[in-house]
Structure formats: C-alpha cells, structure tokens
User: What shape does this take?
Amino acid sequence: QLQLQASGPGAVKPSETLSLTCSVSGGSIYGSYYYWAWIRQPPGRGLEWIGSIFYSGNTYYNPSLKSRVTISVDTSKNQFSLRLNSVTAADTAVYYCARRMPSDRAFDIWGQGTMVTVSS
Amino acid sequence: SYEVTQPLSVSVPLGQTARITCGGNKIGGKNVHWYQQKPGQAPVMVIYRDKNRPSGIPERFSGSNSGNTATLTISGAQAGDEADYFCQVWDSITVVFGGGTKLTVL
Assistant: This one.
C-alpha cells in the first residue's frame, strides 16, 4: 500500500528557507499518472495548497506563494521536495505531502504531516 | 480567484442525518471533493467527484452537487464521525479548499 512520509527540520528562523522531503513507499513516482503535492495547515486553521509536481518535473504552484516556492522531484530516490524561501511566522504550519488523482484532481493519499515552526 | 464557503460548525444528534454545505459560484459545474480530518491526524478523502466514495468509506457518507451548493451528507451520524470536514475544488490550475466545518455529534 502506498505511503507518504514527510520529513525535515521542525524549526526554521525568519527569513531563512524551509526545506522538506516527502518519501514515497509502496509505489513508484516515476511513470505514474499521479501528481504529487504539498499542502499546509496553520495551527487551528484550514488547508492551503502549496503546489504540485509530476514525475517529469512539471509543476503548478499556488499563485499566492509562487514567488517563494520550489517543488522538485527525485525519481531515483522516489522522493519529492519543497523549498519555501524567506519564511515568516505566517509560514508556521503542519506541512502535508499528498498524492493527487490524475483525472479527478482529488488528494487520495496523504502523509502524516510534519510541523514546522518559524521562530527566532 | 474562486472561493468556496462552508459553515463553521454543524451539530447533529447521534443517529440523525448531518448535512455540510460548500457554496461557490456555479459550483455545480465543478468536481467537488470532501475530506474528513480528526484531531492530530491527516485529512482522509471521503467523497470525490461530487458523490463517489473511496474504498473503505462507509455508505452513510454521500455527496451531491448542483447550482451554487455542494453537500456532504452523513446518514445515521456516529460519534466517530465527529471531525472537521473540508471541501475542495479545482479552479483553472489551482486548488481551492473550503475553510472547513466542525461536525459535532450530540
């Protein structure tokens, strides 16, 4: 069964870069028809889509974050990654990685999430 | 940008039917997906493409979508259904989530 596991530092200083990796097990990113996504949730608030990537490297980003976000994929490691530049306290959130269904565009499998706190 | 609106909270007596709405301009023309999130857990998809249940989701979860409102219906609500529920649509090339509805089972 496909599983996703997000990992990375739990704390980042303001103005620095947040970097997370999502490891995929039980299935291959390469050649699949799925997109792979990052979604975040500030404490006590709703979900915010950050962006999605295809195994070929094709990406879509949330316009509100596009200037600060880079999502990349490493098919040899079966991983995809998130970089968010110039972070502020507003970027404090649980960050989830998820798989997006190809035609329905729904997120059918989610990782457990990793909490990232932006603080000096 | 497209926006979807959910009520902040919905309450339902145990065993009764809960209805959670997701409003948006001509949302009936979009595919709506629903997620359940329990405290401290990742969201779980309970309905996709308006009315389809993924494998493992109980039959008491159903969905509909028409006009300006999509609805998630939970028939015979159980204590274990108490959670936050989020709707989601795709607009142009971006993903839009509703703000979420907290379901309380009384």
Summary: The radius of gyration of chain B is 13 Å. The interface with chain A takes residues 1, 31, 33, 35, 41-45, 48-49, 54, 86, 88, 90, 93-100 of chain B (CB under 8 Å). The CA atoms of residues 26 and 92 of chain B lie 14 Å apart. The longest strand of chain B covers residues 83-91.
